[in-house]
Specification:
Layout: H1 3-27, H2 39-63, H3 73-91, H4 102-119, E1 136-137, E2 143-144, H5 147-167, H6 171-192, E3 200-202, E4 205-206, H7 207-224, H8 229-237
Antiparallel strand pairs: 1-2, 3-4
Helix pairs in contact: 1-4, 2-3, 4-5, 4-6, 5-6, 6-7
Length: about 240
C-alpha cells in the first residue's frame, strides 16, 4: 500500500474524527458563544484554508531547496484565520466564532499527522537524523525523528484535556478553546520545527517557526481580551 494512499486514508479519518467531535460536543449541551455558519462564512474559511495550505507549504518547500507543490496544515490554519477575520471585519461581525472548532481541530491534526508519518519521505514532514531508540527509517536508510508522531501525541494530550474541561463545564475553556488550542499548537509546532530539515528564513528560524509565532501572538491577544470567566460561568450554568 503506497504512502500517498495511506495519507489519503488518514486524511479521511481526520475529517471523520472532527465530525465525531462536533457531534459529541452537541450532545454535551455546551453553551458556546452565539454564532452563524452561513455560506459566505464557510466559503471564506475554505478559500483561506486552501490558499494558506498551498502557499505556505510550497514556499517552505522552495526555501528548503526542493521543487514542487506542497500543502501545510499550519498554513491552512493560518490562512483560515486570516480569511475569517477579514470576512468578519467586512460583514461587521464582532462575535468570536471559533469556540466549536477546538476539539475537532486537535483531533483532526492528531490523526492527520499519522498520515504524514506513513507517507514517508515524499511527504517532506520527517525529522532530522537522530540516534534515539525510537528513531525511524523512512526508506532512505537514515534514522530520523518521527516528528509527525510527536505532534500527533501532543495534540491527543490537548484533546484529552479539553474533553475533561468540557465535561466539567469549564467556562473559560469552552468559550476560548479555539485560542487555547492555537496557543498549544503554535508552541509545540515551534519546538518540533527545530527537528525538521527545513531551510532557515531568518537566522535559525524557518518559515514555520515564524508562522507558529504569528499564531501564538494572535491567540495570545485574543485570550488577553477574552471576557471574564466568572461572568461566562454564570451564563453557562444559567
Amino acid at each position: 500500500m503506497s504512502g500517498a494512499f495511506l495519507h489519503t486514508i488518514f486524511d479521511v479519518l481526520a475529517w471523520l474524527a472532527a465530525a465525531a467531535a462536533v457531534y459529541w460536543l452537541s450532545r454535551q449541551r455546551l453553551q458556546f458563544p452565539a454564532q452563524s455558519f452561513e455560506l459566505p462564512y464557510i466559503a471564506a474559511l475554505v478559500f483561506g484554508a486552501g490558499l494558506g495550505a498551498y502557499l505556505f507549504g510550497s514556499a517552505n518547500l522552495w526555501l528548503s531547496g526542493e521543487s514542487g507543490i506542497a500543502r501545510s496544515v499550519e498554513g491552512a490554519l493560518a490562512g483560515g484565520i486570516v480569511a475569517i477575520e477579514l470576512y468578519k471585519w467586512s460583514a461587521g461581525i464582532a462575535a468570536r466564532t471559533g469556540a466549536r472548532f477546538a476539539l475537532p481541530l486537535a483531533l483532526g491534526i492528531a490523526i492527520g499527522r499519522l498520515g504524514c508519518y506513513f507517507a514517508g519521505l515524499d511527504d517532506f514532514t520527517y525529522g532530522t537524523p537522530t540516534t534515539l531508540p525510537w528513531a525511524h527509517d523512512f526508506g532512505d536508510g537514515i534514522l530520523r525523528h518521527p516528528v509527525q508522531l510527536y505532534e500527533s501525541a501532543a495534540m491527543v494530550v490537548f484533546a484529552l484535556l479539553y474533553v475533561l474541561a468540557a465535561v466539567n463545564r469549564n467556562a473559560f475553556v469552552i468559550t476560548n478553546g479555539f485560542y487555547l488550542v492555537l496557543v498549544y499548537y503554535g508552541a509545540q509546532r515551534f519546538v518540533w520545527e527545530f527537528l525538521k530539515p527545513y531551510g532557515p528564513l531568518i537566522g535559525p528560524f524557518t518559515l514555520f517557526h515564524l508562522l507558529s509565532l504569528s499564531i501564538l501572538l494572535y491567540a495570545g491577544v485574543m485570550l488577553a481580551t477574552a471576557p471574564k470567566a466568572r461572568r461566562l460561568q454564570n451564563e453557562i450554568l444559567a
